[in-house]
Every structure is written in structure tokens, then in C-alpha cells.
Recover the amino acids of this structure.
């Protein structure tokens, strides 16, 4: 069968050129006689792969030299523990802004290790917006945000000005979708399975001065110093996921980098939001100033009609479009790899569905 348009929130679709490149190298990676899946992570050929992936990510994001790039396992969820274990080490206090389910989970986990101050929450309107915060606890060891909210389709439209307090951001569903000033953040972490590659890989970008002060009880695998000192290879890393991520970085650079990614992503999001704003059937759930260009959530207002739409969309080749149970309705995740044609064809299908279900 032909490839479908995969609107999954994660694991998400990968760029077709990346998949084709990986397929061509599946059984024999560049004359090595082995698949990347088979080779030792201690071999010279694999060291070239992981070092090239890091170099290309640094180039893509403009990562300063005084930041370490770590390729880790355990998903972004493991970083809910790793962040406080490594950073909540002076006053054992941290500020969290809760703008969705994952930032709430992060705050709940951090509370196991110290005092968590939830500065603001958008739960009052079912996380349909991002709270604005400009005052922080002076004795906080760090401030934590979730940059883009996959479930609720919202994103930050500002960078919290935390001053000398380290700002930590979960960017799992927005990383490499647009340029960011890495220096605005002391630590960025992201699961790869939305914009960077397959599941199994988590990337941590951390300022060097925050490494080496982990709490005594920190497990060795969650200690950033352990991972930094061993170039992400203290144990066997997620080798194939890192290889695929490296191909994604090459692909993004070949297209013009993050400026071009942002241009493409804004265009895709505009096509879908413009239709939703004019539709008499479908309504977006996120408040306009905070709409994500990665995850577009919408409803008809009738759960049965939503169910019918998802079923018919799937038959038409638009898959994984059902919304999260916290929001209901539909969610179109339109990450970097989703072509503009996929969004345009989805809108055409939505117009047809609307005309038939007035």
C-alpha cells in the first residue's frame, strides 16, 4: 500500500529521505559489512556516527561550546527525575510552571526530591493557554517549563525571564522545529520520537557549570557528569536511534536549517488554523495566542461525530488523528516531517466531511 499521512503525536512520521537513506544502509553501513544495529558502540565507525550527530545538532541549533550534548535513554519522563537530582542541589527548591499534563508530571516527580513551588497553572481552562509568569522564587535552584504541550496543543509565546536562575525546558515536541537561543536556557531536554527520530533516544543539552553537582543519591545513569565524561557511552547507548537522529539533522541542514523549518511549519499550521477559524463544524481548542504549530487540537462538540470523523479519516489515509482523552476530539501533529501536501489534503477532507455532516 502507499504511505499514509501519519498525524501521530509520537512516535511520529520521519522524513522520507531519511527512511530511504537508512533502508539503503540497513544491511551494510557504508562498506562496513554490518548494519548500524549490529556494530559495537566502541568501534571507530560508530564513534564517527555519534560524533557527526552531535556536530550536526550543534550546527543546527547553534549550541554554544560551553554546553554539553548528551544522547540518553529513558525518554523525557526519566528527565523528570534527572533534572532535580542534578540541579536541585543548593536550596533544594524549584519553581515549576504547569501548562499541561507533562509539566504537571514533572512537578510531581520533582516534589519527591525537594520543595516544588508551582508558580502558575493553566488547569483552570483545561490547559488551553500558557500562564505568563515574570516573578520567580529568589532561592529556587531552577525554573522548569514544558515549551510545547503535545496533548493540549499550546506553546510558549515568550521565554520566562528568570535572570540568574537556571531555566530548564522540556522541548520534546518542539525541538528543531524553529530557531531557539540556547543561551536562554540552562538545560533543554527532549524525547526524540516527535521531531528528531525514533523512540528510545532522549537528548539533553546542558550548560557545563550545572554538571558535577548531582546529589549523593543520584543513580549513576542519571548523573549528567557520568554521561558527559563518557561522551554518552557509559553503557551501550541507543545506537540506531542516534544514527537516525543524525540523518534527520543532516536532512534539516540540507533544507536550510531551522529558519527554513520554522517557515515550513508556520505555513502548515496556518493552512489548518485558517480553515478551523472559518469552519462552522470544527473548532480549535487552544486559545489563539498560544496555539502550537506542532500539535493542532480541534473538536466538533459532538463526541459521536468526532468518533465518526476519526474513523473516516483513517480510511482515507489520515491516521492517528484521534485526540488525547484529556481533550477529546482530534489532534493533528504536524511535525517537521509532515509535508505541506499532507495538511492541505487533510483540510480538503475536513471540508468534505463538514459539507456531508451539517
Amino acid at each position: 500500500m502507499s504511505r499514509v499521512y501519519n498525524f501521530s503525536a509520537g512516535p511520529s512520521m520521519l522524513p522520507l529521505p531519511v527512511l530511504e537513506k537508512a533502508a539503503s544502509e540497513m544491511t551494510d553501513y557504508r562498506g562496513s559489512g554490518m548494519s548500524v544495529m549490529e556494530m559495537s558502540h566502541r568501534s571507530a565507525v560508530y564513534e564517527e556516527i555519534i560524533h557527526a550527530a552531535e556536530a550536526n545538532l550543534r550546527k543546527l541549533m547553534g549550541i554554544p561550546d560551553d554546553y554539553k550534548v548528551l544522547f540518553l535513554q529513558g525518554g523525557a519522563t526519566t528527565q523528570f527525575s534527572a533534572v532535580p537530582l542534578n540541579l536541585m542541589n543548593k536550596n533544594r527548591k524549584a519553581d515549576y510552571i504547569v501548562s499541561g499534563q507533562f509539566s504537571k508530571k514533572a512537578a510531581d516527580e520533582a516534589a519527591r526530591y525537594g520543595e516544588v513551588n508551582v508558580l502558575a497553572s493553566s488547569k483552570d481552562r483545561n490547559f488551553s493557554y500558557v500562564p505568563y509568569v515574570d516573578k520567580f522564587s529568589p532561592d529556587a535552584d531552577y525554573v522548569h517549563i514544558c515549551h510545547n504541550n503535545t496533548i493540549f496543543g499550546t506553546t510558549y509565546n515568550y521565554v520566562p525571564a528568570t535572570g540568574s536562575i537556571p531555566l530548564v525546558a522540556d522541548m520534546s515536541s518542539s525541538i528543531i522545529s524553529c530557531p531557539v537561543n540556547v543561551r536562554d536556557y540552562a538545560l533543554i531536554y527532549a524525547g526524540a520520537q516527535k521531531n528528531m527520530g525514533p523512540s528510545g533516544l532522549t537528548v539533553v543539552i546542558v550548560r557545563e557549570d550545572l554538571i558535577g553537582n548531582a546529589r549523593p543519591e543520584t543513580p549513576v545513569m542519571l548523573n549528567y557528569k557520568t554521561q558527559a565524561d563518557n561522551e554518552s557511552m557509559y553503557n551501550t547507548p541507543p545506537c540506531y536511534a542516534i544514527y537516525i537522529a543524525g540523518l534527520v539533522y543532516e536532512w534539516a541542514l540540507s533544507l536550510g536549517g531551522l529558519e527554513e523549518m520554522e517557515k515550513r511549519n508556520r505555513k502548515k499550521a496556518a493552512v489548518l488554523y485558517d480553515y478551523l477559524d472559518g469552519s462552522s463544524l470544527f473548532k480549535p481548542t487552544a486559545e489563539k495566542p498560544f496555539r502550537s504549530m506542532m500539535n493542532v487540537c480541534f473538536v466538533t462538540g459532538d463526541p459521536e461525530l468526532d468518533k465518526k470523523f476519526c474513523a473516516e479519516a483513517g480510511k482515507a489515509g489520515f491516521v492517528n488523528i484521534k485526540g488525547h482523552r484529556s481533550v477529546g476530539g482530534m489532534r493533528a501533529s504536524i511535525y517537521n516531517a509532515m509535508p505541506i501536501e499532507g495538511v492541505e489534503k487533510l483540510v480538503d477532507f475536513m471540508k468534505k466531511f463538514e459539507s456531508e455532516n451539517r
Observations:
- The first strand starts at residue 5 and ends at 6.
- The chain is about 35% helix and 15% strand.
